[in-house]
Amino acid sequence: MPPRVIAIGDIHGCAVALRAMLDLIKPQPDDTIVTLGDCVDRGPDSCGVIEQLLDLREHCRLVPLLGNHEEMMLAHLGGRPQPDNWLLCGGDATVQSYSQSADDSFVPNDHVEYIRSWGDFFETDTHFFVHGAYHPEQPLSSQKWSLWRWHSLRDMLPAAHVSGKTAIVGHTSQKSGEVLDYGYLICIDTYCYGGGWLTALNAANGQIWQVNREGKLRDSSS
């Protein structure tokens, strides 16, 4: 099997779904797995999600990207200003997954430092991967990702990127559970924590896997 580049959409604390997804994908040492951000918050077990990602590094090349929820988390834990109140945007669920209380001091430093190491974007010869959106006319290396992590496709759909590469994004939840595919841009945030699906996409051939928050595989005929 040739090396794969597989993107996983917004996990949002759904550790059971992530475990089921990894069991389906069966990552190989030569595979690259890109998590598109918003791995934490809202769902029940953000701690379990981060633990799985730390372990996954031993089995494949893992490329985790920062989402706006990780941005809020790091700002809150670092005592810095944040665009929104993290605890009111799902951060309370993350704290409780670590401590069963509202005490954020239980979030271990190695988890915080790991999240702090996550990147802004990733690209291959044919695709690029970001959390929210992008500026279509700017090189990826010069964009302000702190801005684009927050951009909803419902507010404005960017044009195709000047590079000609296909964009794989998350962030804008598709509450229908269906992947949003414009050809040049594919959004795979399919609302797992809210009753939809966790979606993974093989960039090379378009293969899609979907599981719900209980870890049940979506029937391809549904």
Please describe the structure with a list of short key phrases separated by commas or semicolons.
6 helices; 5-stranded mixed sheet; 10 strands; 17% strand; 222 residues; alpha/beta; single chain; globular
SSE arrangement:
Layout: E1 5-8, H1 15-25, E2 32-35, H2 46-56, E3 61-64, H3 68-77, H4 91-99, H5 109-116, E4 121-123, E5 127-130, H6 145-148, E6 166-169, E7 180-181, E8 185-187, E9 198-202, E10 208-211
Parallel strand pairs: 1-2, 2-3, 5-6, 6-8
Antiparallel strand pairs: 1-9, 4-5, 7-8, 9-10
Helix pairs in contact: 1-2
What does this entry look like structurally?
The chain is of the alpha/beta class. The protein is built from six helices and ten strands, in the order βαβαβαααββαβββββ. It has a five-stranded mixed sheet, covered by helices on one side. The chain has a five-stranded mixed sheet with strand order 4-5-6-8-7, with no helix packed on it. Helix 1 packs parallel to helix 2 (46-56). The protein is globular, with a radius of gyration of 16 Å. The model has no long low-confidence stretch (mean pLDDT 95).
Order of helices and strands: EHEHEHHHEEHEEEEE
**What is the strand arrangement across the widest sheet?**
3-2-1-9-10
Shape: globular
Uncertain parts: none
Radius of gyration: 16 Å
Strand % is 15-25%
Report the strand count: 10
Counted by DSSP, the helix tally is 6
Helix/strand class: alpha/beta
Oligomer: single chain
Sheet having the most strands = 5 strands, mixed
The percentage helix is 10-25%
Q: Terminal Cα separation, in Å?
A: 28 Å
Mean pLDDT, all residues = 95
